[in-house]
Amino acid sequence: MSDKANEKMTNRIRRLRFDNGEMTQQKLAERVGVTRQTIISLEAGKYVPSLLLAFRLASAFGVRVEDVFQYERITSE
Amino acid sequence: MSALQKYAWFNLAVIALTIVVILALVPFMGTKALGGFGFLGLLGFGYFFIRPRPGKVLIDERDNLIWRRSITLAYKIFWLLFVLVAGILPGRVFGQNGDVPVRVVQMSVFVAAMLVVAVMSIAILAQYVGESKDVG
Asked: What's the N-to-C CA distance of chain B in angstroms?
């Protein structure tokens, strides 16, 4: 019998942007040193950032990394 | 459009131009038309799309990841084709004891360069498909 683990990482970047004065994707991108396309990909869940970028994002919003990113593991047999 | 996408489109345009120039000149110049491969030198100008500029992020960690994946794929395909073509074709075309003309060797280098750059550029563009549509 084998276990199959599905990992999923979600984030609250879009929510946090709006909670921070409706910050634009461009503004956030400039703050954390990436392109706007990367912010779009992150919000769509298409890109998992490096640990460094994750910390930079959390710092830009003034919250902890785990307040921005959530990790889920669904194990099915 | 990101800087890397512009770079990829530029590469494909240069390769298309090179192929068109060579094909257009072959009827008039014969094998001398292969000098048209010199147009590939224009690929060097692609650097201007991705060169670092103060105060502006053109290439970030995600772009670098896309670039690395694309280069890896391009070289994998190149190596596979190189082994197949270099291992099989010369013997079939020129015979097991035949001579491969220098022109063929030179041309294969340019074709290989075009293949690597073209596959890399297409892979870059493919990885950006469906993005940049969001606003906010």
From this structure: 16
Q: Which of A35, A42, A47 to mutate to test the interface with B (most CBs of B within 10 A)?
A: A35
Chosen from A17, A23, A32, A37 to mutate, greatest number of chain B CBs within 10 A: A37
Among partner residues A24, A35, A41, which is closest to B57 by beta-carbon distance?
Answer: A35
CATH code for the part of the protein at A4-76: 1.10.260.40
Provide the 8-state DSSP code for A22: S
C-alpha to C-alpha distance for B67 and B87, rounded to whole angstroms = 30
Whether the Cβ atoms of residue B15 and residue B132 lie closer than 8 Å to each other: no
The residues pairing with B43 across neighbouring beta strands, listed in sequence order, are none
CA-CA-CA-CA torsion sign (A56, A60, A66, A72): negative
Could you give the ipTM of this predicted complex?
0.81
Three-state secondary-structure class, residue B128: helix
- Output phi, psi for B97, to 5 deg: -110, 15
Q: Please report, for residues A54, B33, B95, B103, B123, the alpha-carbon distance to residue B100 in angstroms, rounded to integers and kept in the order given.
A: 55, 20, 9, 8, 33
Contacts of B133 in chain A (CB under 8 A): 40
Digit-coded pLDDT (tens) for B22-81: 999 999 988 888 889 999 999 999 999 988 888 888 899 999 999 999 999 999 999 999
